[in-house]
Amino acid sequence: MLEMTKKSTCQGDRNGNNPEPTRVFREMVMWRVGFLACMMLLLSTSLQGQREIDWVDLSDVEFVPEFIDSMQMSYLMPIFGNIPRELSGKEVALKGYFIPVNEDNEFYVLSKKPNASCYFCGAAGPETIVEIDLHKDQRKRIKMDDRIKVTGRFEINGVDLNHCNYILREVQLIDVE
Fold first, then answer.
1. Sheet strands (E) in 10-145
2. pTM of the prediction?
3. Which tens digit of pLDDT belongs to each residue from 46-97?
4. Does the 51-176 domain belong in CATH 2.40.50?
5. Looking at the DSSP assignment, which residues form a beta bridge with residue 91?
6. In terms of C-beta density within 10 A (0-12 exposed, 13-18 middle, 19 or more buried), how is residue 114 classed?
7. Domain residues of the chain, as ranges?
8. Residue 75: what are its φ and ψ, rounded to 5°?
9. CB 117: neighbour CB atoms within 10 A?
């Protein structure tokens, strides 16, 4: 009878063992791990203030030939996918190779590939370069083919043939490798 009463008041298993402390401990550990993960994510995004993107994100684009009357030529015009459109106007961070296309006009690009195999040499597509609006003071710290990390406001360009399809404005140099 005593054993019957013990089993009816205990929430243990069939042998009378009480797993309650183990379950509570497990829940407490899981809650703390989840809380710490959330805090780390919050801190990393608030401290950086931008989204890390890569060249795969920028490959979400198709190009179709379009005849431009004013130029009397056909150009490959971009049709941007969801990813570049969602990034437009947002602060992003991107790594790539620095290429000074025209130093006199301060026309610089960040490239997926080094200069010898970049878009301008015909070895890659236009989605593999990003025009960067780099301040002269920052330019002094880097040379061609340096691998750099920059942040800036991302823009897509599907109309102005004098600029790249992707542009980073208000660029800040973060790292030089």
1. 51-52, 61-68, 73-80, 91-102, 107-111, 129-132
2. 0.70
3. 445 789 999 999 999 999 999 999 989 999 999 999 999 999 999 999 999 9
4. yes
5. 153
6. middle
7. 2-48, 51-176
8. -125, 150
9. 14
